[in-house]
Amino acid sequence: MASGGCGAVLPLWYVCFLVLGLAQFGAGQRIPTTLDGPFTPRTVEFDSSLRRGSVDLLPTDPRVAKTVVGDAPEQIALALSTPDAMWVSWVTGDAQIGSQVTPLDPSTVGSTVRYGLAPGVYTFESPPGTSLVYSQLYNFPGLRNYTSGIIHHVRLTGLQPNTRYYFQCGDAATDTFSAEHSFTTLPLPSPSAYPARIAIVGDLGLTHNSSTTLDHIIQNDPSLLLMIGDLSYANQYLTTGESAPCYSCAFPDSPTRETYQPHWDDWGRFMQPLISKVPMMVIEGNHEIEPQAGGKSFVAYESRFSVPSQESGSNSKLYYSFDAGGIHFVMLGGYVDYNMTGAQYAWLARDLESVDRSVTPWLVALWHPPWYNSYSSHYREFECMRLEMEELLYSYKVNIVFSGHVHAYERTNQVYNYTLNPCGPVYVTVGDGGNIEEVDVAHADDSGLCPGPGDNVPEYGGVCRSNFTFGPAVGKFCWDRQPDWSAFRESSFGHGVLEVVNSSHALWTWHRNQDMYKEAVGDQIYIVRQPDGCPYSSMKNYRDRKLPIMFRDEQWWHITNAQRHGGKLIFDDN
Description:
By secondary structure, the protein is α+β, with helices and mostly antiparallel strands. The chain has a single domain, classed as 4-Layer Sandwich (Purple Acid Phosphatase, chain A, domain 2). Helices cover 12% and strands 24% of the residues. It has seven helices and 30 strands. The protein has helices spanning 13-20, 208-219, 247-250, 262-275, 299-304, 343-354, 383-395, and strands at residues 42-44, 74-80, 86-92, 96-98, 112-116, 124-125, 130-132, 135-136, 145-147, 150-156, 164-171, 176-177, 181-184, 198-201, 224-227, 280-282, 320-324, 327-331, 362-366, 400-403, 409-412, 415-416, 419-420, 426-430, 486-490, 494-500, 505-512, 523-528, 546-552, 555-560. An eight-stranded mixed β-sheet has the order 1-25-21-24-20-19-18-17, with no helix packed on it. A six-stranded mixed β-sheet has the order 16-15-14-26-27-28, covered by helices on one side. Strands 5, 6, 11, 12 and 13 form a five-stranded antiparallel β-sheet that branches. β22 (415-416) and β23 form a beta hairpin. The longest helix is centred in the middle third of the chain and has 14 residues, at 262-275. It is globular and about 70 Å long. 48% of the residues are buried.
């Protein structure tokens, strides 16, 4: 007899699903679940009545223009630290760009946040935070250098869960503070408490399409924003401020990949209406590399954003983890060493081993370049990263993986090593935020569009190009039809929202920008955890373990280590 509510463990999932299924996906349709899969691959082609891209907002646009003077704070942003702590970041002073720039002195402006539980009543004041400036310098004649305003980071601690706090940030010594803002803390880690809505988007940029995406995200009222790399696209510009959708096409004579750093300041102002109220967690993409003199890279990214790298035991802002209610998020770096012998892999193994799935049942991973992508753009570009890390993530039963990089949408069936697998993650690509490089429309399985040997070379890491050795595409580099693991794909700008209902069900919804004012969704599915059928295991005993038998789609499937042939999982029906 069923009891215990929808948070109960299987076999009550079906009772829970009947309740959850009362929601509608379109007129008269039940929202599907991953238990209904694997799904027949489906493609929605690009709507030719829409534009594939748009230009960036001008610096004079009210959404990006600077409106404060002196040392008044701007570009105010929040980020999660630990479950009872929050980062508050902002910028003061004027940035400089030119052949000769003189950095501001960070010690001249204080870093304080005063906050409380009621509007205008600031019972608490933070200890002094940290402040810094960064520079983007070039050794090439004619290129303009940049030095930032003063960037402030303050960590608020001892916060209560599910509580609204009102705050101002600024300099206590001169009583120069921002206008009042507020945020609501997330629930503590628990299998029965989750953020209401988590907005997820990649490759946002600062175009008119980006503005539509941001408006749509705000309309969906998220409690957390996850930004999967390629944020401002400042490196789509020359240092003179001239930009183009294709940098290498427009600027073939550029001596290096230039950037226009004031674009970062515009982006910070553009995002402030949302991220001064809702914490934003970022991970780097290739557009954040931004090489400069002295062999430095990622300087703007690491200077501007607070992330819980130290709190999660990472020595790098390029990979870290955090909890949000009953979800453990792992943010991985595709543009830093990901090999099994490297620091990131060692950290990841420790982090995954430390996760208590009785407290945070959901395990979600994010990184910028997708592993499972059937578009021609970036097709199998990060195969080396997949070969190094996929087995580790699979062994700990990561439930969902989100990536960007490809400027389109795609959701997979549950998959492991290119094989349909009921214990594998669902991979979702949401690199469709609206950036200047335009939406991707070509598929690697389209006739004549399979990338060649010189295509899709990653900015970091090696090239692991090989033909498939099993399955319908055996002997080929590309499939000649939409791959079986690709459940749904569509070329359109948009964003997604993850709503974790309980410890077994999470609703994923993808919103297309063109549906902003309609009661419609582009894609929607309940992702269902099956911890009894898909137990996780530490890597130290992974190679010798056997997964117990599990029931799915009226078949008994045995998954054993002995059945792994050349990295392929075989499913028996007996």
